[in-house]
Fold these 4 entries.
Entry 1:
Amino acid sequence: MTIEILQALQSAGVPAGAKALSEATDASQATVGRVLRRMEEDGLIEPVSNKGRKLTPEGLRRLREHSASDVKRRLARDLVNISFDGDKERLIEVMRIREMLEPGCAAVAALRATQEELTVLENYAFGHRYLLFQGKAANREDLNFHLSIAAVSQNQTLSKILELLLTDNNAYVEFSRAGEAERDAQVTAHFEILDAIRSRDGDRARKAMCAHLKHVIEDVRRVYHIAEDRGGAPGVEPGCGAAPEDGASPS
């Protein structure tokens, strides 16, 4: 109820008492009174003589934080709605978004990866290769390899977007499954990306990731019989992500 009262005070634009706030929040005056006392103690509101209460700077800050969280939640819900929903053709849409995100991540990872982070990437790459050549599923290792590269880029928002795209309805399983017949190519691609990151060659890492994702798209089309589209995402060259400038994290 704290947020509701803060919003009601902001909407009123003038100090308001328990009765007015009770009507605005559809709660009893007794309940509103208890919440108001707690909010005063927390420094979110302050009394104005006998006119009621008004927001403090701290109360306004709390409202702004809540609004920002609301926006993030809405964006997350929207992203879920466009991510993989079981429709195989939707996999191509997800891949086009990956093309915009992951090449830049790989380039930045080449500049920022610590030795410890490189070791983690190596472990996933070797684990992926081992399982594939044992004839076993390596979905999780494939996923973790890509998510770890995004994490190394230190862009938390981008990492979360990528994680959501790949894990929603287990889309990453579909991508790995599509490439099972091309396991040598999968393994080679991961090690080419890894070698470029290890060599601190951002441009080569970006190009290696572009080539890998392009190959995944081809596998998805072939396995699930999806027709070619015309150029992928609007304004984005298929198979290529923008190179980061001056070592900056991709935005």
Entry 2:
Amino acid sequence: MPRRSQATFQNVTHVLTRMREGVSLKSAAAEYGVDPRSVVRIGKSGLRKTASGRYAAKASDPLLRVLNVPVLGGRIEVGVPGSRKASTVSDRSNAQRYFVNTGDV
């Protein structure tokens, strides 16, 4: 995928995350510099239409996220399918970083 498309796709996942925090589609898309129509087109599996016709983010989505994961000797990029799995990997990575920085289990 071209770099520009990668950036757009990544920004769409960020928009969905912001929408889960209560921000509107239009505001979240503007925050990340993405056209709201692109968010609907690319992230439709993570959106639902409300009774009023507006879009709201679902509790989770199956979109791919690429995360930097610490491993022995450095970091690697890992493709993680879905927001829930990405959160799990991120929580583990944060716990590892906390342990390395503080030594506290």
Entry 3:
Amino acid sequence: MQKSVKILLLLAVILVISLIAKSLIAANRLQIEDISDLLPRNGQYPTRSLASIKTVVIHHSGVEGQTAWDYALYHVNSNSWPGIGYHYVIEKNGSVKQTNPLTNASYHVAAHNAYTIGISLSGNFNQTQATQAQISSLKKLLSHLSSLLARDFNVVGHRDLGNTTCPGHNFYPLIDSLWQ
């Protein structure tokens, strides 16, 4: 073969490898949709510095077939909270919605909101299992938060800080495997 043909083939192989690598990176990238300004609100949450965040608390919504919008309506209308209690909601399909700025000390765990981030997975995990898409997105979100906060943190279930079954009997045993 001529030298120029070999060079062209080598360049084509490098291009294909580069495209495959970019595709794999894109598939592993976490996409977060910030809907915090779109959700129902009734006032403002207290704020805090990111440096005060020490713990991530995992929740389940406790209901099937609802979304971050539904949880926000419930928290505002039934609980009289300033907004949705969680910082993130992970839907059944794995999509991640940011529902509060991390600087908001939103109400998701009584007496522990000043230093925690609340992540809720949609579903009732006393009755069903989290989807693989939810688990994958949660792992990516925890990694993202570690990078954003530039430190490690504790990851606990809501039941570790309050009298509840949340995040459900079927999900709670998975918590230790999510973040180590």
Entry 4:
Amino acid sequence: MHIATRHHHLINSRLAMLRYADEYGFKGAARRFSLNRKTVRTWHRRWVVSGPAGLVPRHPRTRAASCTLPRCGPGSCWIGCIASA
């Protein structure tokens, strides 16, 4: 699998965290890198199964807008979102 260049720094950071986790455990790595322990375990599991390709971000490149209401003026959109929630 080809890994996009824009992800190389992120993958290297996650690999560094996994190397730390090998030495200090999931809990220690989670503390050191300010992550949830479950996140560290998830990345470790993906890395074991898929190698570095498993550490590529899985979120879509563009995300859906959080507010689907039309803009009526400055500041009105977020008020509408709160009212419709």
